[in-house]
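Proteins fold. Shown next:

***
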Amino acid sequence: MGIIKKITSVVLSLAMTMSLVACSSTPTSAGYKAGKYTGKATGMKGEIVVDVTFDESSITAIDIVSHNETPGISDAAFETVPASIIKYQSLGVDTVAGATVSSNAILTAVAQAVTEAGGDAETLKNVKVEEKEMSNETVELTADVIIVGGGGAGFTSAVSCAEQGLSSIIIEKNSYLGGNTIRSGGAMAVADPEVIGRHNMNKAHEQTVEELLVAPTDDPEVKKLQATCKKQYEAYKKEHPGKLYDSVEFTTLQFYFRFGQSAILEQLYDTVEKSLTGKEWLAGYGFPWGEESHGIIGDSWLRWCTSSKHKSGIAYIEVLQDAIKENNYNVDVHKSVTGKSLIIDDNGKVVGVNAVGDDGTTYVLHANKGVVLATGGFAANNEMMMKYSDGRWSNLSDISTTNDPSSQGDGIVMALEVGAGLFDMGHVQVMPLADPQTGYTDTIVGSSTNLYVNKEGKRFVNECADRDTLTNAIMAQTDSCAYVISSKENAGIDAEGLNIFGRKVDELIADEKVIVADTIPELAEKMGVEASVLEETINKFNKAAQEQNDPEFNRQSFEGDLGNVDGTPEIVSAPYYACLRKPAAHITKGGLSISKECHVLNEKGEHIPGLYAAGEVTGGASIAGLLLSTAQGMTVGETIANDK
């Protein structure tokens, strides 16, 4: 069962009426001119258009005509808000948690239509709505496994458990499923030498390998890894001359140094080793992998694989949900239910979860075999980030986030109450290129490996550096911002005028998220910088790209990434684009101490019986995202099945 679906509370209209048109122009004594009116408002991802039908005294129907909101996340808003408006004849109805922007856009659009129909929108905003009657019911449910969190890690864990013949119950605090997975760009790191080896290896790649093979370390296990990679590399060059090298060992080595040598090497290696298995496992359930691999921001090594059909991580949730339905797996899903505490028996084993529904229902969830925490990280919890900060970032108290608002660290708090240990909690990775207003990544035009300039029009960093380096460099610029500069060839805009996240670029331009111009001087003027400065910056950058030599910032590769899959970031021809970006909290790399088998450990390093964890809620591997949720989710089922 896919979660992409078109929803309306009354009737879903396919009409694309784009102007306010009244079918009747005669005011009524009740205050409305009976007929159908169209309202518009800006949601999270662009314009939401609604048709509102009135009789002489009331709103009788609200149809969602068009929108570009994230499937799954916005569905509840489209179901609930219009129905509540009609039920209460009020614009003071509740918004949907997790979809507040979409909810408010619906309310604004309907208010616009009310005004056109001759009604008083301000009065409707003050119409009292009945207080939601809270339930006093207690529901007790039992399954082999209780999974807290309905994102990528949670659903992967459920399918993995089902493969072992285990039943499971998933609870998700949001009104929608998918968590951060459906907000992601959909790229998964895979150590797949066959796919990566289709790319050519240039001098910059060679330099990267050679530097990593001799990178200083005091860890004997890392030195062994370097020695193994050296032998592999020499053999690979002979067997596959001119082709890009990769292996499980090299990916592990590269990630280890990129993440500040803070990972538990065994856990990182185990996760990377499962990357290709995870890719094949998902393919077995019908995941439509693209043929090519790419780079992403902070990692120019071309090992990132994506769906051939979707521009976001929603494909993962769709495939896992379909797997449950098509295989008749025993998985029961409850949305809008928040885990509150773990249930412990007299022997100290975790045997269930206490939870509460949004309607007040109390849930007592019994686990025959174990509980899996898959609640994600805490990058939307500024207070928690500050509490555990290691000092590398000075602005965690007010920094925005790319994450789902539900990323509050709930699972960590629950586990701490039963004595769980923590690992590397201060390690927060910041996304360098986020929307300055919202913190999200989906408003970008241009590739993350394109030219960055500051508000003075000057380049200031190697755009292929790691994310910490990029973030620090951007934070040092005026207003802690940078422009990503692109041209027709590498703006990441498809034939339908959509960016890599499926956003309409024309709307992003209209919303002033993106600047567009036909000439570089015009672009400079709109950016507020000296034309001569920007032209000189672009000329220098283009020369470096053409010659594959960057004496100014020592950039080693001028390959593109997911937003520029066909090659160079050289600024060539009109139209030219500038997109202002600012760093936002992205990944909390620390979390619960676990074994590589996904047992949660206490402060002494001992297993907490019956408690498991998967995904960004964990610490140790120093990575997150789709690779971690897939690798650990697959592991959980086998571990629980084998535990006594």
Summary: The two ends are 33 Å apart (CA to CA). The chain has 18 helices and 22 strands. The CA atoms of residues 483 and 580 lie 4 Å apart.
